[in-house]
Sequence to fold (409 residues):
Amino acid sequence: MTGEELKKLAKVFVRVGGAVQPGDVVVIACDTQDAPFARIVSEVAYDAGAKNVVYKWDDEECSRMRFLRAKDEVFDESNDWLAEYFKYYDDQDAVYLNIISNDPDFLAGVDPDRIGRGTVSRGKTLVKHRENTMSNKVRWSIVGLPSPRWAAKVFPTLPLNEAVERLGEAILKVSRAQVADPIRAWEEHNNNFKQRVEYLTKKNFKSLKFKNKLGTDLEVRLLPGHQWVGGRESSSGGRGFNPNIPTEEIFTAPYKFGVNGRVVASLPLSLYGNLIEGFEFTFENGKVVDFKAEKNEENLKKLIETDEGSKYLGEVALVPIDSPISREGVLFYETLFDENAACHLALGKGYAINLKDSDGMTKEEIAAVGLNDSLVHIDFMFGTEDMSIIGIEYDGTESDVFVNGLFVF
Fold:
């Protein structure tokens, strides 16, 4: 990416993604390899009026070394300092900007048990912060940035420099950062979500039935009092922001105990630095009762065993097969992008924003309605070009939502 292109992407990230306002504190989280872009993001944030920009650095090489060499007991230890870190910035209503560029295989060969235990430990540490982000009490956004190892995975037949360039071009295009006025393009994009979000919420379907030739035959009952969300979201302070750059999904929450049938993944899942391929799940009364994978099944097993909630769904998202990311024809091996190329589901925690009037409800009251809770939230893709979706109303009336992978409205 050129300097001008990086500046455009940073403006989308700061002004559309995090919607940074004068006086905001901004927390940038990224890998050390992304420091040059983090500096550009900082500059744009300060130009938008940010009071302060702070950094939370990571390094995938050091993370891999820790999983391979650290003493076994560290993967069960709590990290109270990290909880205090996020509490400090949550209390300041900070804006969290997360840059991702990791190698999809960076934890390949690591003991799945260590990864699973580390996930549980970190999840327990960040329970409160995760609740704040998933209920939009704070603003947050994620953007992708090309890196050599990621690019080599996506374009393995190209010379490395060309692969990085191609990945950068794809990211810019689907993030709407290539056009002359990206901010205006995002305004139009966000407005286009409104019609379908309002239509689906008004229909108030009791359940959705998914079916395709790949083998998916699944009925998902929706949360009573659910609402659909897509594009721009609103923080509890009333400020609009876009959590994902890019985004093409419209999503809501399933009723925890109302999912039945078989779902077959249509794309691989990059999970904690390992690629899971050729996998599927069988659900009964909301719970995963059977699963299999052609590659890295043990990692999938560890995910399902994270806690009780990781065996249930927390999200159902609709993405037409003609979405801009799908039309790119690129498998990104990164959920931020691949989830916007196909309909997807998420194992684990549901979003309280998908429940009408959830503000003011206690965690126990929300759980009693049937919204799933978990330490994890992992999206996986199952949409295809022949996907059919039928909406079933409370009186039994059925109507098409998708035909051949596309919305009918």
Summary: The mean pLDDT is 96.
